[in-house]
Design goal:
Strands 1-2-3-6-7 form a five-stranded antiparallel sheet. β6 and β7 form a beta hairpin. The protein is of the alpha+beta class. The protein has a single domain, classed as Peptide Deformylase (Alpha-Beta Complex), CATH 3.90.45. About 25% of the residues lie in helices and about 25% in strands. Bound molecules: nickel (II) ion. The site of nickel (II) ion has 5 residues, from α2.
């Protein structure tokens, strides 16, 4: 397993549409494992392949509470097959937009179909935080960031701050690109 460098917004690589995987083979499994390791190390509760520069429809999430056992979910080609009319409001953040948070409204319950770590087709009913997290990560596969759900005013304010932070920092990505970095 390896830690992967996370791309920080604004970056055109975060605005691309990711391609489906044909099947979850060893290469995709490796990507899932690396995404999980990178997510836990960050730490975060979700990560999508485009955030590490891989344009494949692969996401990982773990919305378990800190004092609970880990509950990692690996999903390839996730599809929403049901969404509730009722909405949830959650304060969202993103490893690609560090230190910025804003309330986003999304369906409170979803049913998602995906290929799991073993290439099995699964369906999962999720609600509340887990549903929000899955939808947030699925957005990344369409090149959509949580700030795209906000007003242009709020979005531009956050993106301007991130651009400024990048300019001030000679290494824009938190983890340098290249060789895997050892966990702290
Ligand atoms: Ni994100």
């Amino acid at each position: 397993m390896a830690l992967l460098p996370i791309i920080i917004a604004p970056d055109p690589r975060l605005k691309q549409i990711a391609a489906p995987v044909a099947r979850v083979d060893d290469q995709v499994r490796q990507l899932m494992d690396d995404l999980l390791e990178t997510m836990y190390q960050a730490p975060g509760i979700g990560l999508a392949a485009p955030q590490v520069g891989v344009l494949k429809r692969v996401i990982v999430v773990d919305a378990s509470a800190k004092d609970e056992e880990r509950a990692p979910l690996c999903m390839a080609n996730p599809e929403l097959i049901e969404v509730s009319d009722e909405d949830a409001h959650y304060e969202e953040g993103c490893l690609s937009l560090p230190e910025h948070y804003a309330e986003v409204v999304r369906p409170i319950r979803i049913r998602v179909r995906y290929l799991d770590h073993e290439n099995e087709i699964r369906e999962l009913d999720a609600e509340e935080l887990l549903a929000t997290c899955i939808q947030h990560e699925m957005d990344h596969l369409e090149g959509i960031l949580f700030v795209d759900h906000l007003s242009a005013l709020k979005r531009n304010m956050i993106l301007r701050k991130l651009t400024k932070a990048k300019k001030a920092d000679k290494t824009p990505d938190k983890i340098p690109t290249g060789a895997p970095v050892a966990a702290e």
